[in-house]
Amino acid sequence: MSFLKSLILAILASIFLTYVLGASFLSLFDVNVAVNGSLIEALQAMTASALVVGILVVVALAIVLSVFGSIIFAAMLILSCSVMVAIGVFWPVLLVAVVIWLISRDKQNKQYV
After folding, report:
1. Which pLDDT score is estimated for 13?
2. What angle, rounded to 10 degrees, do the helices at 42-104 and 3-28 form?
3. Residues near 26 by beta carbon (within 8 Å), at least 6 away in sequence
């Protein structure tokens, strides 16, 4: 399962659980949510909170992925540059080593009984 599909399913599951469990908790603890001095329904309060939490999760995920993604990209860039420099500097030695290996390798096919 792809990462984006897993993220979307996790957000939908959290919103669904908020709807299912939210109404019972709001009625159990007798919580009233007011906006501009007027009370709003429990479903609207849960919807607003679930959407805000979903947006915050996506924003936090984007920040984390961009920071760690850029760190991983920079590390891979440094590693690949080091490998290319090593190959560029030592290519004659590597070429001689490959030629020696090709000449001196055992060319007999050993068959095991």
Report:
1. 77
2. 150
3. 42, 45, 46
